[in-house]
Automatic annotation (TrEMBL), chain A:
Membrane topology field: Multi-pass membrane protein
Keyword hit for Cytoplasm: no
A GO BP entry: electron transport coupled proton transport
Keywords carried by this UniProt record: Electron transport, Heme, Iron, Membrane, Metal-binding, Respiratory chain, Transmembrane, Transmembrane helix, Transport
Pfam families registered for this protein in UniProt: COX1
Molecular function in Gene Ontology: cytochrome-c oxidase activity; heme binding
Protein name per the record: Cytochrome oxidase subunit I
Organism: Blastopirellula marina DSM 3645
Xref: SUPFAM superfamilies: Cytochrome c oxidase subunit I-like
Family (UniProt): Belongs to the heme-copper respiratory oxidase family.
Location (main, coarse): membrane
Transmembrane residue ranges: 46-66, 86-111, 131-150, 170-196, 208-235, 255-279, 291-312, 324-342, 363-386, 401-421, 433-454, 474-501
Domain (Cytochrome oxidase subunit I profile): residue spans on this chain: 35-536
Places the protein is found: Membrane
Automatic annotation (TrEMBL), chain B:
Identification of the protein by name: Cytochrome oxidase subunit IV-like protein
Transmembrane segments: 20-44, 51-74, 80-101
Record key words, sorted: Cell membrane, Membrane, Transmembrane, Transmembrane helix
Kinase among keywords: no
Domain of life according to the entry: Bacteria
Subcellular location: Cell membrane
Segment forming the signal sequence: none
Membrane topology recorded in Swiss-Prot or TrEMBL: Multi-pass membrane protein
InterPro entries from the UniProt entry: Caa3_sub_IV, Cyt_c_oxidase_su4_prok
Keyword Cell membrane attached: yes
Primary location recorded for the protein, binned into one broad class: membrane
């Protein structure tokens, strides 16, 4: 089981059927207990993946119900109150249960230690604890849904959150616990990356995915605790009326918004940074070219993480914030677009003259670049003071954040899932089916959300169950798109699940990537590596050749590598 | 970010390298903390006017620094840890100062509203 | 480990049973220790930001409404606050000393020091309980249960608090704590007119029993509006701090249990060090809470 740079060795072992249980983490032990109490980061990652996909499915059902109701401007099947609950639950489930943990906790957990050539993260027990906190948080959310719902919007703004009769406290407890789950993940990753990089992997030889996860973890550590205390203070406000956020008791609701957005704006970078990390990997591998501007991409991750803390007030332009603060925040908001644009340009430059292969992950990466660019550019309209007065709380905002969150993060997540799927489960999915559903997702997504830009700019407010005639056509297009998107998503996940039963056996390195996770067998052995494999430039593909027999790439002794490995 | 990915492999002794605080440092720190607590309480009676709170916070910060540097032996840790800690304090400062700046800016409006409401109720 | 201990009492670089406490994914005890150290510090950073929310609320209300703080802080007992400060400082000393004992493989001393730390934490909580109880006797509860809040916001009180549970009015504690009452009326001879107004407005509009605030001994309630905000902040800050103390006691208890089994020595003392760091941070936060809450004028 010794691991070198020659993945073919494992392959041979696997084909011979000489595999021992230790050679495959999925088979290393069996029984429900072996999963529930596992300390193996790979299994924890898989459990997270299941939980996250279930949440996504739940949030998606809510979304489709919303969209169906909006097919006409009059009541179809939801009362106004039910509609309010539905969009709140959709938003809260999607943000807190799905998108924040999606890439770091599910994919990151699986990939990060293997990318570092290590056996596990620094604190395996805390890792499992983080998963169970996620489960507890999800249970709180479920309780809130069952025992009366929630209708404050995922933002919990006071004073309404103090007076509504729905289950605010249960949901806040859920948010609190989920926050700790997220903190533990981030803490674990920071320590792992700091202290456990293998010999030869300096900071600037780390894969860019790790840089982005590191930047994300910084935000998780610095911002999430503020969400925790905000939740506790709001619980106290609701239970005891302590008068900090509630104007009825002399408190200040604008202060609540400061607290909330001090976390929640950086949180959108918790969502998007890991996605950018995945895209950096995908673009390089599938263009078979060294990533362009490595250092710029790495530094821009950190820059985004830090600048992200300076702009929270752009959510409060029309909520009573002072003019001074509004002007400052508006100006700072534009600064975040610089590092984001740096990334996009570097990806494009990487593709330039590359030999691009349109495997499914790459299709998602291209979709990401397109959608994220639209999402990002429309953000500038919202960051500009004057235009935001018109656009605030309209469907323009809804379209903007769905382009970034769904078009960005979700698409990158699915792309990453397709990319690492062979590594995670040792099987290849059907490439054509994968591409087909990627196309459906892309079309459905644009059909759903592009009309929302138009109606938003024309004044259709968000969070309304009813609307006037003039908006009907946009809403109907959007609803059609939503169902198309739904089909696309179910199909995309279906293709992966199907491969578990019918998929071809995956080679160790199906894509010809040069990061360390492809140097162990697929799926990895229980301990990943006996000793960390030699570290080279993660984006140097010159020594990898496609091997027909393997169905994947193997390392060939080629021209001397540009950078020494060991 | 100067810390190394790997502990030096050449150290084949298995002990852990960590500073052991001397008894005199521990008790010296302790005594200083007690004195400063006494000082905080003693000057409480003196009225410094507007800078009252800054005096109290200043002393508290000296105490906190003593705790961090000696009891938490930050002095002997890798600089990365000290930097991270200071870095986090910068974010605390950012959070508090910007929120405070904004609240002070819009406070007159809140006050005006309050007075108007009182007026109304009185009529 | 016990064998190791007796043979190598003071040898910080023993060469035996090194793998006893090294998890499989670490390469050396040093790497494990460094990871744990970095991990606990990262955790402390989250704690700092967690508390920062309350400090932020404090800063804003104190800056905008200093009168609330000046007035309400009179209700706190600075001596008890000072006592607790000293208690925590002593416990920090014993904790830091315990880390040293662990590093030097002084098992007995380690256990004794941990017990003392634990006991001091208990004393701290005891004093806290006394403080809270006196507050409660004066109906200085958090939020709308606070009698100041009920006097100022009678309609809100009616909405959320049943009649039986509403404050019985200030008249009794004026006699309970006469010194207090006098102090207050002196302090606030020059109360702003708006505050006065407000009380009357309520008295007339609500016709509420508690609105006879005029007969009430606490000068503060008449002059300064929103006194309850101080108590909200006070209870949140000290309450959440106390929860951290309780958490710390759990951790120290766990250390004592492991120390009794002889698990700590010069080769493996990480957990003692980490819990110690946590304990010092809790102390460090109290160092700020004390002057901020108790010493205001
Ligand atoms: C990555 C996945 C998604 C995320 C993270 C997400 C997030 C959110 C958030 C945060 C809100 C705001 C809720 C609020 O106002 O409190 C929202 C609203 C909404 N979302 Fe999504 N969403 C996702 C996917 C979808 C999909 C796939 C659809 C439709 C097919 C959809 C349709 C809607 C609708 C209709 C609203 C309500 C707009 C309103 O009435 O203001 N979302 N979403
Ligand atoms: Cu934002």
């Amino acid at each position: 089981m010794s691991v070198g740079s020659t993945p073919d060795k494992f392959q041979a072992a696997n084909l011979d059927g000489a595999q021992t249980r230790e050679d495959n983490y999925l088979l290393a032990s069996s029984g429900v207990g072996s999963w529930l109490f596992t300390l193996d980061h790979k299994r924890i990652g898989v459990m997270y993946l299941v939980g996250i996909l279930v949440s996504f499915f739940l949030g998606g059902i809510f979304a489709l119900i919303l969209r169906a109701e909006l097919f006409t401007g009059t009541k179809l099947f939801l009362t106004e109150d039910q509609y309010n609950q539905m969009f709140t639950l959709h938003g809260a489930v999607m943000t807190f249960l799905f998108i924040i943990p999606s890439i770091p906790a599910a994919l990151g957990n699986f990939v990060l230690p293997v990318m570092l050539g290590q056996k596990d993260v620094a604190f395996p027990r805390m890792n499992l604890g983080s998963f169970y906190l996620w489960v507890v948080g999800a249970i709180f959310f479920l309780c809130a849904i069952i025992f009366g719902g929630l209708d404050t919007g995922w933002t919990f703004y006071t004073p309404y959150s103090v007076t509504t009769s729905t289950r605010v406290i249960l949901a806040l407890l859920g948010v609190f616990v989920l926050g700790f789950s997220s903190i533990f993940t981030g803490l674990n990753f920071i320590v792992t990356i700091n202290t456990m990089r293998p010999h030869g992997m300096t900071w600037f030889k780390m894969p860019l995915f790790l840089w982005s996860i590191y930047a994300t973890s910084i935000i998780q550590l610095l911002a999430t605790p503020v969400l925790g205390i905000t939740g506790l203070l709001l619980i106290a406000e609701r239970a005891l009326h302590i008068g900090i956020f509630d104007p009825e008791m002399g408190g200040d609701p604008v202060l609540f918004q400061h607290f909330f957005w001090f976390y929640s704006h950086p949180a959108v970078y918790i969502m998007i940074l890991p996605a950018m990390g995945i895209i950096s990997e995908l673009i390089a591998v599938f263009s078979r070219k060294h990533i362009f501007g490595y250092r710029f991409i790495a530094y821009s991750s950190i820059a985004i993480a830090l600048l992200g803390f300076l702009v929270w007030g752009h959510h409060m332009f029309v909520s009573g914030q002072s003019q001074l603060a509004a002007v400052v925040f508006s100006g700072l908001t534009f600064s975040v677009s610089i590092p984001s644009a740096i990334k996009v340009f570097n990806w494009l430059a990487t593709m330039y003259k590359g030999s691009i292969s349109l495997a499914t992950p790459m299709c998602y990466a291209l979709a990401f670049i397109f959608l994220f660019t639209i999402g990002g550019l429309t953000g500038l309209f919202l960051g500009a003071l004057a235009t935001d007065i018109q656009l605030h709380d309209t469907y323009f905002v809804v379209a903007h954040f769905h382009y970034v969150m769904m078009g960005g993060t979700l698409v990158a997540f699915v792309g990453g899932l397709y990319y690492w799927w062979p590594k995670m489960f040792g099987v290849m999915y059907n490439e054509n089916a994968g591409r087909l559903f990627c196309l459906i997702v892309f079309l459905g997504f644009n059909l759903t959300f592009f009309p929302q830009f138009i109606m938003g700019a024309r004044g259709m407010p968000r969070r309304y169950a009813r609307y006037v005639e003039e908006f009907q056509i946009y809403h109907q297009l959007s609803t059609l798109g939503a169902f198309l998107l739904g089909i696309g998503m179910v199909g995309a996940i279906g293709v992966l699940l199907y491969s578990l039963y019918r998929g071809k056996k995956a080679p160790a390195n199906p894509w010809g990537a040069n990061t360390l996770e492809w140097m162990c067998s697929s799926p990895p052995p229980l301990a990943n590596f006996d000793n960390p494999p030699p570290v080279g430039d993660p984006y140097d593909y010159s020594n990898l050749r496609y091997d027909e027999r393997e169905g994947g790439y193997v390392t060939v002794p080629g021209p001397a590598k540009k950078t020494s490995s060991h | 970010m100067s810390d190394h990915a790997q502990p030096n492999d050449d150290s084949h002794d298995h002990g852990i390298h960590a500073h052991v605080m001397s008894m005199s440092t521990l008790f010296g720190t302790f005594a200083a903390l007690l004195v400063l607590t006494g000082l905080t309480v003693a000057i409480y009676e003196i009225d410094f006017g507007a800078i009252d709170i800054w005096v109290a916070m200043g002393i508290a910060t000296v105490k906190a620094t003593l705790v961090a540097v000696y009891f938490m032996h930050l002095r002997y840790e890798k600089p990365f840890i000290t930097l991270s800690f200071l870095f986090s304090l910068a974010f605390v400062a950012l959070f508090i100062s910007v929120s405070l700046m904004d609240a002070r800016e819009y406070e007159p409006q809140v006050e005006a509203l309050h007075n108007a409401q009182m007026q109304e109720a009185a009529e | 480990m016990t064998v190791a201990e007796s043979t190598h009492e003071h040898d910080a670089h023993g060469h035996h049973s090194p793998e006893a406490h090294v998890a499989h994914h670490f390469e050396s005890p040093q790497q494990q220790f460094d990871s744990g150290k970095l991990g606990i510090w990262m955790f402390l950073i989250t704690e700092v930001l967690f508390f920062s929310g309350m400090f932020c609320a404090y800063a804003i209300y104190r800056s905008l409404h200093p009168e609330i703080f000046i007035d309400a802080a009179k209700e706190l007992n600075a001596m008890l606050g000072a006592l607790n400060t000293v208690v925590l400082i002593v416990s920090s000393l014993t904790m830091a000393w315990a880390v040293r004992a662990a590093q030097l493989s002084q098992k007995k001393l380690l256990i004794v020091l941990l017990w003392i730390t634990l006991a001091l934490a208990g004393v701290f909580l005891g004093v806290k309980t006394v403080e809270y109880t006196t507050k409660f006797q004066h109906e200085l509860y958090p939020g709308i249960y606070n009698h100041f809040a009920q006097e100022q916001y009678p309609t809100v009180a009616d909405k959320y608090v049943s009649k039986e549970n509403q404050a019985s009015g200030g008249a009794e504690h004026a006699t309970e704590a006469p010194a207090h009452g006098e102090e207050h009326s002196e302090e606030h001879g020059s109360t702003p007119a708006t505050g006065e107004h407000e009380e009357h407005a309520h008295a007339e509009a609500g016709g509420h029993a508690h609105a006879e605030a005029g007969g009430h001994g606490h000068g503060g309630a008449q002059g300064v509006r929103n006194i309850h905000i101080f108590f909200g902040i006070y209870y949140m800050m000290t309450g959440i701090h106390a929860i951290h103390i309780i958490g710390g006691m759990g951790a120290i208890g766990w250390l004592i249990y492991r120390a009794n089994k002889g698990e700590f020595s010069s080769e493996y003392f990480g957990p003692v060090d980490y819990v110690g760091l946590y304990w010092h941070l809790v102390d460090l936060i109290w160092i700020y809470l004390f002057p901020l809450l108790y010493l205001i004028h």
